[in-house]
Structures are given as structure tokens and as C-alpha cells.
Specification:
This protein has 94 residues and is an all-alpha fold. The chain contains five helices and no strands.
């Protein structure tokens, strides 16, 4: 019975843990050659990982967007970065 409780507790903690925001993963997607694919993959990355990023990490992404993303840069991509930045600032205020 003890083992079952420990196993259930471990599972709950494992599932509830957030994946860290790794900016190098975002940067590695910027090397894709096709701008349309690059744009879509970066949007997907932000949607998946944006809530896990701190405001400082999102500022780093914002400051490097032009250099990293190139022709795949768009209002939609910048809007997502701003959206997750605002959420991070609110989260960090608490």
C-alpha cells in the first residue's frame, strides 16, 4: 500500500511539473530554411512554451526577433511574444 501511495504521489508531481522555457530551443528553430515553416514552428513553440517563460526570457526573444527570425517575422509572432510577456509580468507580480 505504501508503494502505491508513493507511486501516485510521484505521478501527480511529475504531471504537474512545467517544462522549463529553453530559449535555445526557440533559437534552433530559426535556422529552418523555409520562412513559412519557420514562422509556423516558432508560433507553435510560443504557444506550447510561452507560459513557462519568464518576462526576462521573453524580452530576450523580443530583442532578437529581427535577427533570429528574419523574413518569417510577423505581427502575429510579435503579438504572441507580447501576450506571453504580459502574462509573465502578471504571474511574477504575485
Amino acid at each position: 500500500m505504501k508503494r502505491l501511495i508513493v507511486l501516485v504521489a510521484f505521478f501527480v508531481f511529475f504531471v504537474s511539473a512545467k517544462a522549463p522555457c529553453v530559449i535555445s530551443d526557440f533559437y534552433s528553430l530559426t535556422w529552418l530554411g523555409n520562412p513559412s515553416e519557420r514562422h509556423q514552428r516558432l508560433l507553435d513553440w510560443l504557444t506550447t512554451n510561452g507560459d513557462n517563460c519568464s518576462s526576462e526570457q521573453l524580452v530576450g526573444i523580443w530583442n532578437n526577433l529581427a535577427a533570429w527570425v528574419g523574413t518569417a517575422d510577423s505581427q502575429e509572432l510579435r503579438g504572441k511574444v507580447l501576450y506571453y510577456y504580459a502574462r509573465a509580468v502578471e504571474r511574477e507580480k504575485k
